[in-house]
Amino acid sequence: MLDRFREIEARMGAASDGAEIVRLSKEHAEMRPVVEAVQALDRARGEAPELEEMAAAADADMAAMARDELDALKERLPALEHDVALLLAPKDKDENASAILEVRAGTGGDEAALFAGDLFRMYQRYAALQGWRVVIDSMSEGDAGGYKEIIAAVTGDGVFGRLKFESGVHRVQRVPATEAQGRIHTSAATVAVLPEPEDVEIDIKDGDIRIDTYRSSGAGGQHVNKTDSAVRITHLPTGIVVTSSEKSQHQNRARAMKALKVKLYDQQREALDSARSEDRKSQVGSGDRSERIRTYNFPQGRVTDHRINLTLYNLPKVMEGEALNDVINPLIAEDQAARLSALEDEFG
Length: 348
Prior knowledge:
Helix content: 40-55%
Strand content: 15-25%
Mean pLDDT: 83
Distance between the termini: 21 Å
CATH class of the largest domain: Alpha Beta
Structural class: alpha+beta
């Protein structure tokens, strides 16, 4: 890795092609934290022999000082080694990708749609705090508010790496606004987070898709009423259906094709994850969207993530997006621990 890093630095200095410079710069940025951690470990290990020699010196004061520094170094080394091992552990290749976020109302009628709306707003606020951009692709509003379904593109650095653990069933326990007697209701919404890499290499044959145009339904305007501009693409082998309903049919076709590629790419990822999950010690990152992953209990202000038995009592801040990292960070740590364990099993 150090050799590759030095090679990239040399090539960056000599490259004149813009696209190559961008590609090399990206790889350089991704490798830098690993290289810096390795170099820090090497420096620390290099200090040990000199300190050991000084600790054996005749000068008592110098020997005592060297022993103190050596003890401190020995305490520091395991943390440095852990950092390097963590950075070298196998990573999800889509870690830094942008993502498609899909939130759908589950069981619970109007209350489920309202909760789906609350979840989407939570992710919107969290994205804003991370400096990410959220663009809504399509939505179907609930009769009493919220969303029956809402799909958005979340663009930024490391979006998928942080949001991928949100895939699954989210359950809410609260008193709905429409409940006159103050009874607590339980409803649910499902969240799916799909990676959106810059270049999705998926081959789609013309004979495998059916493209339909239809009249867009939406608020007001002659365009909505008179133009069959919305596009629906059905992938016949898998049954996957994607739609786009903006004003331009040409743009809709391009966006729908991109969405289809993302869905097919995600299907391939899911098949790989399922194949690997039997051997994994942690299911945190399995992406199983039928699994109930989290419960939001409003009367008690409690959030529980069932995968790692994490319970927090800061529900309002979580729903505002401010404290969502309090849930996401332990999930990432658990997943990293599982990867390190897998690395240890493989290499001893």
